[in-house]
UniProtKB/TrEMBL annotation:
Boundaries of every Response regulatory domain copy: 8-124
Domain HTH luxR-type: 143-208
Alphabetized SUPFAM superfamilies for the sequence: C-terminal effector domain of the bipartite response regulators (SSF46894), CheY-like (SSF52172)
InterPro entries: CheY-like_superfamily, NreC/VraR/RcsB-like_REC, Sig_transdc_resp-reg_C-effctor, Sig_transdc_resp-reg_receiver, Tscrpt_reg_LuxR_C, WalR-like
Keywords: DNA-binding, Phosphoprotein
The protein, known as: Response regulator transcription factor
Modified residue annotations for 4-aspartylphosphate: 59
A Pfam match: GerE
Length: 218
């Protein structure tokens, strides 16, 4: 890409409607030019070698592989090409997988075309700086999940708390001293942001650490 030349783009998607529709929208931009399309991973990689575009926009799920295969393969060959993953499957795991594979950007197919165009421009200029509208939310959810992760022993204690046992009884069940058991309980409360047993059990149920709670204490 020279200073005056438009950004050349290769579109890889196994749906012709996406290739034609998105291609037409992109070509309306003076600084962008769709130089080729492909309907599979294999064809896309061959077209990349043939065309050497500035940016590759690839679908995530295709018949012969995934867009992550495209991203990893091309990124091994070049640090300067922009790589954008476009997908209907825009969950947190897909976002992190694309980022780890070396993508420049990640866009859901439900996003407006302006978002795709903006991401393609970014990818051309900063190919190794990952952007995604949902990245902050995904990172916050991952951080929250990690902060509430219990150790195996803490989970054992939580299960017995849910049965209504007190610290002494839990210690007896798990062959722990009462003080050690109380330390585990305190860490569980801290991780779950709870001030007492009831709050801890409600939070544990809500985030899937518990499926049932005994109605009465022992």
């Amino acid at each position: 890409m020279t200073d005056n030349a438009p950004i050349s783009i290769l579109l890889i998607d196994d749906h012709q409607l996406i290739r034609d529709g998105l291609g037409a929208v992109i070509d309306m931009e003076e600084d962008l030019d769709v130089v080729g399309t492909a309907a599979s991973v294999t064809e896309g990689l061959n077209r990349y070698l043939e065309l050497r575009p500035d940016v590759v926009i690839t679908d995530l799920q295709m018949q012969d592989g995934t867009g992550l295969d495209v991203v990893r393969t091309i990124r091994k060959q070049s640090d300067t090409v922009g790589l954008v993953v476009l997908t209907m499957h825009a969950g947190d795991e897909q976002i992190f997988a694309a980022m780890q594979a070396g993508a420049s950007g990640f866009v859901g197919k439900d996003a407006p075309s302006t978002e795709v165009i903006k991401t393609a421009r970014h990818a051309a200029v900063s190919p190794k700086a990952f952007v995604c509208a949902g990245l902050v939310g995904a990172m916050m959810r991952r951080q929250n999940a990690e902060s509430t992760a219990l150790t195996e022993r803490e989970h054992d204690v939580l299960l017995l708390l849910a049965e209504g046992l007190n610290a002494a009884a839990i210690g007896g069940k798990l062959y722990l001293s009462e003080s050690t058991t109380k330390s585990h309980i305190a860490r569980i409360y801290q991780k779950l942001g709870a001030a007492n047993r009831a709050q801890a059990l409600v939070t544990a149920m809500r985030i899937g650490l518990l499926s049932t709670v005994q109605p009465s204490a022992r």
